[in-house]
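Re-run with default settings, no changes from the original entry. Doing this only to confirm the output is reproducible before filing.
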Amino acid sequence: MLKIDSSKQKGGTTSARLALVSSNDSHPPGQAVVDTRRVHAKLTLDMNVALTARHKHLVAEKVKSGAYGSATEVVREGLRLLEAQDEQQRRIGWLQREVEKGFEGPATAWTSHDADQVRKMIARRARRRG
């Protein structure tokens, strides 16, 4: 089980600790099976996430290999990848809708002016999204 413990610190910040805990181990509740580090962040809730044995092993192996410093880093990287995948799917959806609009409209010859307009539209969208 992945467990996030948080507590209030001086200055109003919340300290969070992500721990990989096995429900069938003899460890007391909340004791980490793998080495974890304190993470300072503003949290609004505590979260427990149940992992399969395969995923627990994967997290532990990533930390053990040195690729990540803690289980927290492994989970954050996974979440960043999910965010990137969601953004990619959103962009693909937009592109597909734009292509469908093109097929629905009247058939006209493609010109260099059309290509310039598309480039400008893509550049505007890229600037807005940062």
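The beta strands are 2-8, 14-20, 38-41, 48-49. The first strand starts at residue 2 and ends at 8.
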